[in-house]
Design goal:
By secondary structure, the chain is mostly helical. The chain has 4 helices and 4 strands. It is globular. 17% of the residues are buried.
């Protein structure tokens, strides 16, 4: 039985923008690592909405990445972050 091919696109290191670097550190790093570090930052700074855990309330640094200080749904977050990856 042939082995299932792993999706290596997610594991390929990507360049990180300066705004995103301010939040998660210097790249390049895999997309999976970017999201992991983003969640570490969000939890450490208590940016997850207390009532609706799906909402992220960005601070100054994260607002630069998301393009707004407005609260954002966690499922929209990855779309906003991908604009900061090359």
């Amino acid at each position: 039985m042939p082995q299932k091919k792993k999706n290596t696109a997610f594991m390929k290191p990507v360049q990180v923008s300066k705004d995103l670097e301010a939040v998660i550190g210097v790249g390049p790093m895999p997309r999976t690592e970017v999201i992991k570090k983003l969640w570490v930052y969000i939890k450490k700074n208590e940016l997850q909405d207390q009532k609706n855990k799906r909402q992220i309330n960005p601070d100054e640094k994260l607002a630069k990445v998301f393009g707004s200080k407005a609260s954002i749904d966690m499922f929209q977050m990855t779309k906003k972050v991908s604009k900061h990856l090359k």
